[in-house]
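Reopening this ticket.

The earlier resolution said the output was attached, but the attachment link was broken on my side. Pasting everything inline this time so it's all in one place.
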Amino acid sequence: MTEQPPVDDVTDADMTVGEPKEWAAGVPGVLHSMDPAIKQLGVARTLKLMTSLNQKGGFDCMSCAWPDPDHRKVAEFCENGAKAVTWEANPVLVPRTFWSEHSITDLLDKTEYWLGMQGRLTEPVWKPAGKDHYEPVSWQRAFEIIGAKLNGLASPDEASFYTSGRTSNEAAFVYQLFVRAFGTNNLPDCSNMCHESTSLAMAETVGIGKSTIAYDDFEETELIIVMGQNPGTNHPRMLTALEDAKQGGAEIVAVNPLPEAGLRRYKNPQKVRGIVGHGTQIADQFLQIRLGGDMALLQAISKRVIQAEQAAPGTVVDHAFIAEHTSGYEDFVEHALRVDDDEVVRATGLTIAEIDEVAARYLKSKRTIITWAMGITQHTKAVDTIKEIINLLLLRGNIGRPGAGASPIRGHSNVQGDRTMGIWEQMPDTFLDALAKEFHFEPPREHGVDALKGITAMQRGEVKFWMGMGGNLVAAISDTQLAEAAFRGTEMTVQVSTKLNRSHAVVGDEALILPTMGRTEIDVQASGPQFVSVEDTVCSVHGSHGQVPPVAPGLLSEVAIVCELARATLGDRVPIDWSAMQADYGVIRDHISRVVPGFDDYSRRAGSKEGFVLPNGPRDSRTFETATGKAMITVNELEHVERPEGTLLLQTLRSHDQYNTTIYSLNDRYRGIKKGRHVVFVNPLDLADLGLTDGQLVDVTTVWHDDVERVLHGWRVVEYPSARGCAAAYFPEANVLVPLDSAAKGSNTPVSKAVPVTLMPTRVPATVG
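Inline output:
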């Protein structure tokens, strides 16, 4: 393997701003994915990996949870999937000399981009108490240090164990097993910060916190309403499904504060018209909604459904479905008719004509899918907004029939599978009972901390040990300065990682980094080569098989790391054979088959090229495991998101060359940004109202009720066609603006999509002398 020098950061002075793109993918998408892969991986390694990505018998893409079609294409991946593979499989390694050359204080001054570009981690390192440098240690020593710290805590609840959504089912299961055998339910995960609002709202209303559609439903639908998401960047393969739906006659409505290129026009690089033609127009109607206005829009559409039913009784609402499968209809009708259109207009920024048009599309459609992502889930009233999505679908029987249903789109590749495997601080007693029966110990029953509560528990000194199975929570969580102070107050932080990130520089008194294999790599244990499995966004479970040797000898898999740590910490306190599970992942899957419903004969079915689909009551049989035994139509009070005078509502978002907190480059091709990230996108009319100009440097400050100053200094204003009164800036840099106690009601998800901020010209310090 040929080592390459790390890429240096550029400065904000190098930034250029061009016009945003009006279409996505096409030849540029191929060039931007394959050119870096070939240059960094070489031709042979690139071909081996790209032709195995998302293929039957290959490995599952780590860049999103978009499902795979039954009939795969030769190139079953997208631009960002190729970038993710290149990022992980790049043979650039962090040398041993790095740790003596770079103190933790030095790493604190580096950006996420610089940290990630240093290469793959290859050996465990430890920061002893009072030291400012990591130093290499053996695996045995690393596990001894962690085990001793955990066993020295006054209570297991003084430890918290975070999980990234990229962790496999097998690793997630042994991880939660170890944590509960240790004695705590402190199992926060990335779901807490993204789709927790979905999980809660759907579990309460339809009995399952997951999608109620299958992949093929996109081909059978008549209408798709896409809310609060940008598939062109965050899950690009979805554009192919949307294109197929359009060609099958479906209409598509996009609801978003920003006009995203992928929802305008898609040039499919695997079709002639995507190379030399105009491509496919995706959205038939674009509703440029004001941040926080989605709930009002949904209530207004439902009101029009009820009014149409009253005008033509028995022809609009699916009364047979309502009577047999739902509860709460009568109360809902009374509430819906009281929805004030004037308030809806104020909340949404839309016109009555636009609302009437989307309502007419819904009334015309016999099969409708509503799909959404974090533009919906990260609001104060996110849970109720998702309940309104379910209400609208239920009115016309759009759950449990082909081409119709609720489709939350997960971002992390196995975040849904991790939750199925028990990664949740609030797992029900049925799961814990099954765990107790299978492993002959009594799991703790008291609920643990989620991501936000975990930070506040650190602040109070109640959580002294923190471990992350992947991810980069320090950067991903809201209220950066308070979160970083909380992490620094712990006694020990442990991170299982493939590459460096901010969480390795913001640490407790002691800190360890445990390097792990990536999903692309062949995992050989005592019984031979292993495979792992994942669950995608439509509840399909399939195997993932590493394709290339690990980038360095001595790397351990996530499963091996957990099993080794469990032995070092628990000894023989619990009757669990960690060695057997480490040696053969089939043993783990056998345990899972007896603990988790729907996983019978797990190893054989996951190991087959087809995989299998988990049972889904709403989708499969219109059965709903709710408090009433039926799907629940709910009454939710609308709360208008107020914008204080002189402020804008800011949302955080990804750039195109980004996967969560991982920065592939400093470019955002679709939005016209090159060599920079310190920008805030603002409507030109709002700039005029604020007395600002395009390109001006501003200080962005949060308007909140406490005395904490949350500000970004010297960010460049970019004139952009965003919704009036709204602004946008990149995640994770803008997380500093999101208050820790600004969270969605019920789900406790950070409210990252409606942060009131002021923009003031940056003051240039006066010259002295």
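Reporter confirms the inline version is readable. The first strand starts at residue 16 and ends at 17. Residues 12-89 form one domain.
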